[in-house]
Amino acid sequence: MTRTILIVDDEEKIRKVYSSIFSREGFRVLQSASAADAKEMLVRQDVDLILLDINMAQVDGTVLYDLIRAFHREAKVIVSSVYPLEDQKQLVNAATDYYDKAESITILIRKVKEALCEEL
Amino acid sequence: MKFTSIRFKSRVLYTSILCVILVIFSTVLFSFVRHILYRDLDERLRIKAKEIAGILKVYTEFKKIENHPVLRMEKFFDEFNDEAQERMVIDDLWRSQVQMLDLKNDYVNILNPQGQTIIISGNFTPPAAALFRQKVPFSLKGEIIESIVDENYKLRAINLPVSYTDLRPFVVQVGTPLEPVLDKLDQLLFFLIIVILLTLGVTSFLGSFFARRILDPVMEVARTAENISHKDFHKRVSETQVDEEMKYLIHSFNNMIERLEKSFLHISEFSSHVAHELKTPLAIIRGEMELALTETREAGEYQRVIQVGLEEIDRLIKIIRDLLLLAKLDYKPDIFNFEKVDLTVFLKNLHEHSKILADAKNINVELNIPAGEICIDADPVHLRRLFFNLINNAVKFTGAGGVIGISLSVVGETVRAEVSDTGVGIEAEHLGKIFDKFFRAHKDDASFEPGNGLGLSIAQSIVKAHRGNIAVESIPGKGSRFIMTFPLV
User: Fold this and answer.
1) Regions in chain B scoring below 50 on pLDDT
2) In this predicted complex, what is the ipTM?
3) According to the model, what pLDDT value does residue B276 have?
4) pTM as predicted
5) Mind telling me how many Å the CA of B242 is from chain A's nearest CA?
6) Cβ–Cβ gap B287/A106 under 8 Å
7) For residue A28, pLDDT beyond 90
8) How far is A75 from chain B (nearest CA, A)?
9) Which residues in chain B touch residue A24, judged by CB atoms under 8 angstroms apart?
10) What are the DSSP calls for B30-60, one per residue?
11) Which of B14, B111, B378, B477 has the fewest beta carbons closer than 10 A?
């Protein structure tokens, strides 16, 4: 069964490269450039995992996180940011996992797979 | 006790001042008392001398006049009719009168007009006589009062010439002991010295307490200052129960800490912003490159990845350069070289260069400046950068066929320059943040070339360094207008 990943990030190039990475790994990838966009996407689509940037310029990603948790409790959320992991955990303390964007993409792939494999 | 301390100095100062005051006061008091005591003594002396003179007069007169009242009294003693007895009665009378004068300890010397002693008191021994001759001048002219002080005698003596009608003149000299007066003065002096010393001692001691109490807030401020570090800006010094002048110190101190705290937070936020901005391009580069290496790709794909890498590297370099400039602008304004700049000439130049940029997108650039010279104090290099940032934004956010306007006017003592466009405009909610560092109003919109969000921040810093102001007006969908004001020169 193909899993769907939603990438929420306001940086276009980040969305593009992550999208390539996950497509290559066999996932179906959706992209949102803003929290508003993401909200809309989530209403229309079923999503297995959300890769959420909490440092978006316009809207605070933590707000969106709370929203996701309220309406899509089953979805896994990996919080991503350029901030160090400890700082991310302080901002959002119950996410499935955390990813520092400056780290290697192999770590990202592993974390995504682990988050989804828990179900299998 | 430190000799350079305020406590020591204030103690010494107050004690010295008090000491001087007390000494002056004591001296005045002492002189006054001494004056009074002597005056009273002299008065008693004078009275004694006059009384003696009076008695002598009576006695002498009596010897001459038959009908003297005392003689009449004698009639009562008729049965005696003895001259010796008569003399005894007279002498007794005289003696009793003299006794009333209480001349027990006094020295009496009565002299004739030639200066020879005719009557003396029992204690008027030769040493005393010699002393009198030496110290108390014989004078027929007027009253003289002198002190006689040597190791054996302490007297206050008067020389009183007496002349009654019908009598030859004579001089009465009386010396009365000075000891009572001197003793009283000694006691007073002793008392004053004790009081002064005690007072100084107590004041010095108390003064130390007061000095410490006053200085307590200062020590408090110092202790708090010691404990403040970048880890803890929350301490403040309490302003309750503090004297007025100290309140000012403490208030200023607390305000200073507050400002430091704010500055520190500002810098922290800025640093974390910077980290964020720098890490994102790096994350992109890494992502692309790692992905590219996972399998063999076509040459074109590798080229694309390298291209992305270079773009992001350029972005990093630009961010770093802009940040350095901002840092310099904010903290070291002496990188500016001010000179008189004629804005009409400057903007004409700018207009020419802007046209080159704008032509690529088919945008018109209009120039609206008055004739004549309009000068401001400016650094041409930074001024150019300021306007170029604005023009760049205008070009970036205006579609083909749009219009960019550059205008200049003078209102009173202020020069007003405007850069306007017919571009996408700025949402009202973003207007307040537009000059913030790293703020990008149109970050999500891919149709616009990405920037790093520092351009307007730099523009604002430059305007401020030129003692000017910058403001923005915008209608979303219609366009924006940036208004700068500078003081006219």
Assistant:
1) 77, 79-80
2) 0.84
3) 74
4) 0.52
5) 42
6) no
7) yes
8) 25
9) 291, 294
10) HHHHHHHHHHHHHHHHHHHHHHHHHHHHHHH
11) B477
